[in-house]
Write a structure and sequence with these properties.
2 domains; 168 residues
Length: 168
Amino acid sequence: MSEQLVTLFTSALSGSVSGEIICFIISLFPILELRGGLLAASPAFLNVPITTALPLCVIGNLIPIPFVLLLIERIIAAMEKFNGTKKFALWLKNKADKNKDQIEKYGFWGLVIFIGIPLPGTGAWTGSLVAALLHMSFKKSFLACILGVLMAAAIMSVVSYGILGIFA
């Protein structure tokens, strides 16, 4: 699914903005995050040099995280008050509940690993959602997000520029 979303973003934005901006924008979005940004930057898509793509994607992925950590509980509480958004708020809570056992069991390092291993449903957005709903400290949570995003960046660089780069 993320490859289709990356294709959609790159085709929609190509010609309007540079490949670097496309990678940055993709990295801001939940679901795609850094993984999608580096995939878009890879030789298979936009062919943005890794030395340019890596910092753009890391920064793009981290920019929304403090806002998620600080505001998501209030946003979910507000969403629960309205019939039109109540189901989505409950879905968010269920998503966090589904992943909280792993993070609660291993704490800080559990959050780092959860964010850092590039699997569907993991990443900085979901990790920070879980951290906020578990009332983990902001500093610890944000540091775990940074370390997790850097871990994901290392893994995705090998995948996007190593493995996929061979087939481009």
